[in-house]
User: Fold this.
Amino acid sequence: MKALTVQPLTAGSARLEDVDEPPQSDGTVLVQGLAVGVCGTDMEIVSGAYGWAPPGRDRLVLGHESLGRVVEAPAGASVAAGDLVVGIVRLPDPVPCGNCAVGEWDFCHNGQYTEHGIKSHDGYCSERYRLHPEYAVKIDPGLGALGVLMEPTSVVAKAWEQVDRIGGRAHWDPQTVVVTGAGPIGLLAAMIGVERGLDVHVFDQVEAGTKPDLVHALGATYHTGRIEHSCPHPDIVIECTGVASLVFDAMEHLAAGGVACLTGVSSGKHALKVDASMLNRSMVLENQAVVGSVNANHRHYQAAAESLMKADRSWISKLVTRRVPLEHWADALARQPDDVKVVIEVGT
Ligand code: BGC
Assistant:
């Protein structure tokens, strides 16, 4: 069968090739791959900056934002032949640590977790793959092809859960949220903010085009300048770029008691001068909190499904700006200026 593979930490090594059928040991649910979303992590892997091949192998099947159709599943499983499914990305570490032991693998403590398409486990950009039933999330058929947005939405749903839990440490009645970055993660974070009735402000660099249009269509406000100029003191910041200057801007301008959740991963290449003493002062005197958030567990996939079902279908469909057939995978990996979410179509 065909799969898009890469040799991790080797730039330019991605290729479409014939690979073996997925082994039974990957799970009892056989899935036909339909679509895979491309995200910044995939770009990093393809550029040679991130990723791990499965043990004993050089190459990794790419893709962690999946949508597939079940071909066969054991009787009594939570999914059955014909169902649309999304595969959970992270698998618990084998020890397992306390968090993995209770299904909170997104908080794995020892780093020995694996991730489909990212870390030591083949991904979903292949014609067929197998899942363990407990890692196959059934998609409402009404969502159809948009089910491919489930994984990035789960990441954002977890970020919102972090904000809620930290905000809930005292009386918490947030009004304003700043989202930095109008890529898929930022737009989905904004979507959840609007669903919650918050006053949502999205910051990005582009002056015009799909991103500002999508923000306006959501009923949120789009900005290109500095946070302090157009939306000082938000109660919540969801940072979705990993750009160091924006991260610190977000931290500096939080309201008293505010929560900033960081979801973007910085490149680690840009040093920044920060007034750490002032930052410490305001964080302490104003009870501000900054939290990092990665990955998602079952609870977050369920929350993501609810948010996507609640959202305006025509709005979420506009997040997918390009669909590229598997044979043209290289086009999907070449960023175009107006891209939001690019999807590789593996099957129909
Ligand atoms: C994925 C997460 C994953 C993270 C780190 C993200 O792109 O959506 O599921 O945990 O990368 O590998």
In short: The longest helix spans residues 150-167. Residues 39, 41, 64, 89-90, 115, 118, 151, 155, 294-295 surround beta-D-glucopyranose (CB under 6 Å).
